[in-house]
Design goal:
The chain is an alpha+beta fold. Among the domains are: about 80 residues, no CATH class; about 40 residues, no CATH class; about 100 residues, conserved putative lor/sdh protein from methanococcus maripaludis s2 fold (Beta Barrel); about 90 residues, Efflux pump adaptor protein, beta barrel domain (Elongation Factor Tu (Ef-tu), domain 3, Beta Barrel), CATH 2.40.30; about 120 residues, RNA polymerase II/Efflux pump adaptor protein, barrel-sandwich hybrid domain (OB fold (Dihydrolipoamide Acetyltransferase, E2P)), CATH 2.40.50. It is about 15% helix and about 25% strand. The strands form eleven sheets. Strands 19, 21, 36, 37, 38, 39 and 40 form a seven-stranded antiparallel β-sheet that branches. β16 and β17 form a beta hairpin. α5 runs antiparallel to α6. It is flat. The N and C termini lie far apart (about 180 Å).
Length: about 675
């Protein structure tokens, strides 16, 4: 068997040129599938575009079939009636344009009714949908849009008919139950006439005779009738009306007569306006004088009635205390008034007298103790030197007059003393008269220099017998007192301008106190002052005002005063805070009780009493005041009586009378009357 010789061909194993390779498996299949998908999408897009523009030839066939959609979800469309799968509402028919078909359904679904303007409205008795009021039907059924039950539009319920509180559309002429909720129908209340009976809890229950409410069992109450003027009625039960006086059949109270309007010229009681008389007299109920109704408008009559409420008489008479009796110091807006003595006791009127008295009101001030400036001394020397010894070395130390304070060594002083000794000796040795006179003059000059340097006469007397000057000079205290300040120590160099000690004599001290501007009139030099301090409880110290400073502090608006106190026991220490009580020591002045003064802000006035029942307003000008009295500068005289209690009631009466006089055209005469 021969072997087939296979020759090697290098081209068999070489790769094919690019673009001539063999395709992978299923490549052609995928190409076909891709083109099928692309063609389907193109066909679907074409159908949708054609359907949008209505270009299908079979469109007439599609339009012939009725479609349905949901009113709440119009995107859901169905070819047959049913319920919306989203909200459950009944589907409604639509036309080809997607609009609802407004036709009545024979199955009981209501149609949409609108007027020419597109408005809808159901009449009473018709049925409509609560969600779609445009859906109206004459018979009950379901809404064609949402499937809800149609509700009947309620009609107007007449008084006496029955209706359901929950369903007002349910109306009946007879009582019963609501066919919807089963509640009892309630009767619509009618208008109750005066004299009929009704239940307070159920006003629809009305009866012509008394009895009990058929609903709650309460007693029926009679509707009160309006009492006419002149009739009698009970204040607690106004429905009780009678033509004759008597007692209320319900509570037993006396019936009161309905007041009749008093005519101008008639007389009536201010407290009981129902009392009317054609002649003057007294009220049979309270005993007050009847007052005549002025021939004026109703506003004046009303003012008279209001005036009577205070129980004060405003009888128009010819008395000098009438509206025109204004006195010598009239008060704007006030007129004199007359009050019966019985009423004065009821309102508690009290009076006080105007007289001269001392306004002994005390003035309390705050101050502090300070040393007497006339008993204060600063210790200086008139030369320079060094402190050699210090006898008083403590601040606050007490020193006696003439006691040594410190010794000073000074070259200037030593030289001056030496010159004086030389001059003294030279005058003793000379025999020539002319030379003796010259040397005496030189001695006098050196002695005067020692005086000018502050050397005491006692030290100079020692130099008259000494042979050599002293090496130190002792400085002594000029008076007894306490060292308030010390500024030197041993060995210190001192000058004439340096203060060495401050010594104060505290046997007398000052108190500086602040006085407000309004109290300056009560301050006088020599006035007695009583001082107390918390350092010595229960003790007081007497002093006198010695000086009043001439200026007022701009910061505190106070003026300082100086009070001197004796301090022999040295118990009063400088710097102590004290309380000052200044007693008024002025002469007697005309004063009025403080309770009698009526303060109107820009004016003060009081009511002067005449003959016990007449009260005249008087304008006042007041001065100083104490706790209980005011100084009277003008407006009152000594011995006059003024009202001190219940003056506010008299003030109200006076103002009201002045207002009524103004409305009636009566102008008060400020110059008539008798007041002082």
């Amino acid at each position: 068997m021969s072997e087939e010789i296979h020759k090697y061909d290098p081209h068999d194993y070489e790769p094919m040129p690019e673009g001539e390779e063999e395709a992978p498996r299923f490549t052609h299949t995928m190409v076909i599938v891709r083109w099928i998908i692309l063609g389907g999408m193109t066909l679907f897009a074409f159908i949708m575009i054609s359907n949008y523009f209505g270009l299908f030839l079979w469109g007439g066939t599609a339009n012939s079939a009725t479609q349905y959609h949901c009113p709440m979800h119009p995107t859901y469309i169905s070819n047959q009636p049913g319920d919306c799968p989203i909200c459950g509402m009944t589907l409604v028919p639509i036309d080809a344009a997607g609009k609802e078909i407004k036709t009545a359904d024979s199955t009981g679904v209501a149609a949409v009714q609108q007027d020419s303007l597109g408005r809808s409205g159901a009449k009473p008795g018709q049925y409509t949908c609560p969600m779609h009021p445009e859906v109206i039907s004459d018979t009950p059924g379901k809404c064609l849009k949402c499937g809800m039950n149609l509700e009947q539009v309620p009609g107007t319920v007449q008084p006496g008919q029955y209706t359901c509180p929950m369903h007002p559309e349910v109306v009946s002429d007879t009582p019963g139950k609501c066919p919807k909720c089963g509640m009892n129908l309630e009767q619509v209340p009618g208008t109750v006439q005066p004299g009929q009976y009704t239940c307070p809890m159920h006003p629809e229950v009305v009866s012509d005779t008394p009895g009990k409410c058929p609903k709650c069992g309460m007693n029926l109450e009679q509707v009160p009738a309006t009492a006419q003027p002149g009739q009698y009625t009970c204040p607690m039960h106004p429905e009780v009306v009678s033509d004759t006086p008597g007692k209320c059949p319900k509570c037993g109270m006396n019936l009161e007569q309905v007041p009749a309007a008093a005519q101008p010229g008639q007389y009536t009681c201010p407290m009981h306006p129902e009392v009317v008389s054609d002649t003057p007299g007294k009220c049979p109920k309270c005993g007050m004088n009847l007052e005549q109704v002025p021939p004026d408008t109703g506003s004046t009559q009303q003012g008279n009635n209001m005036n009577g409420m205070s129980g004060m008489s405003m009888t128009a008479d010819n008395s000098q205390y009438s509206v025109r009796g204004m006195g010598s110091s009239p008060v704007p807006g006030l007129v004199p008034v007359t009050i019966e003595s019985q009423r004065l006791q009821l309102i508690g009127v009290r009076t006080g007298s105007v007289g001269k008295r001392s306004l002994d009101g005390s003035l309390r001030l705050a101050g502090y103790i300070t040393p007497d400036e006339t008993r204060l001394s600063n210790i200086h020397v008139r030369f320079s030197g060094w402190v050699k010894d210090l006898a008083v070395n403590q601040t606050g130390q007490f020193v006696e007059a003439g006691q040594k304070l410190l010794s000073v060594y000074s070259q200037d002083l030593f030289q001056a003393e030496n010159e004086y000794i030389i001059a003294r000796k030279s005058t003793e040795r000379t025999a020539d008269d002319i030379l003796r006179d010259t040397r005496h003059q030189l001695r006098s000059a050196t002695r005067q220099r020692l005086d000018l340097l502050g050397v005491p006469p006692e030290e100079i007397s020692i130099l008259d017998t000494a042979d050599s000057p002293s090496l130190e000079l002792w400085v002594r205290s000029p008076f007894s007192g306490y060292v308030l300040d010390k500024t030197v120590v041993i060995g210190q160099f001192i000058n004439p301008d340096q203060n060495l000690f401050t010594i104060a004599d505290l046997s007398k001290v000052w108190v500086l106190a602040d006085v407000y501007e309004r109290d300056l009139e009560n301050i006088k030099i020599g006035q007695t002052a009583r001082m107390t301090t918390s350092a010595y409880p229960g003790e007081s110290f007497e002093g006198k005002i010695s000086f009043i400073y001439p200026s007022v502090s701009e910061q505190t608006r106070t003026l300082k005063i100086r009070i001197e106190f004796s301090n022999a026991s040295f118990r009063l220490k400088p710097g102590l805070y004290v309380d000052i009580d200044l007693a008024d020591q002025g002469d007697g002045v005309l004063a009025v009780p403080a309770d009698a003064v009526m303060d109107g802000g820009d004016r003060q006035y009081a009511f002067v009493v005449h003959e016990g029942t007449h009260f005249e307003p008087r304008l006042l000008k007041l001065g100083r005041s104490s706790d209980d009295y005011f100084e009277v500068l003008s407006g009152l005289s000594e011995g006059e009586q003024v009202v001190t209690s219940a003056n506010f009631l008299i003030d109200s009466e006076s103002r009201l009378k002045a207002a009524i006089a103004g409305m009636g055209g009566t102008q008060p005469d400020a110059h008539a009357g008798h007041g002082k």
